[in-house]
Amino acid sequence: DSYSGMKLTKSNLRLILGAVLLTLLIVAAIQNSSQVTLSFVVVHFQLPLFLVILISALIGFGIGRLLRARR
């Protein structure tokens, strides 16, 4: 048997999964690139929708980590 294919190791699986997730992230960013106005108290500014979603997710992740660290 002269098959010399790449073995599916844990490291290779992580690399493939990372590439797929990065591709999905790029597609989502392109599809949600329209500008939205964000109002916070008296401040108003415009950002791409994808950036607003990303910032919100990061803030939620950070709050979750803080709350979990307190237990």
Give a verbal description of the structure.
It is a single chain. Strands 1-2 form a two-stranded antiparallel sheet. The mean pLDDT is 86. β1 (35-40) and β2 form a beta hairpin. The protein starts with 9 loop residues before the first helix and ends with a helix. It contains two helices and two strands. It is an alpha+beta fold.
Features:
two-stranded antiparallel sheet, 2 strands, about 70 residues, about 60% helix, alpha+beta
Q: Which sequence of strands runs across the widest sheet?
A: 1-2
Largest sheet: 2 strands, antiparallel
What does the average pLDDT come to? 86
Rough outline: flat
Distance between the termini: 55 Å
CA-atom Rg in angstroms: 19 Å
Helix content: 55-70%
Task: Count helical runs.
Answer: 2
The amount of beta strand, in percent, is 15-25%
Kindly name the structural category.
alpha+beta
Count of beta strands: 2
H and E string: HEEH
Unreliable runs, pLDDT <50, ≥5 residues? none
Short description:
This protein has 71 residues and is an alpha+beta fold.
List the helices and strands and how they pair.
Elements: H1 10-31, E1 35-40, E2 43-48, H2 49-69
Antiparallel strand pairs: 1-2
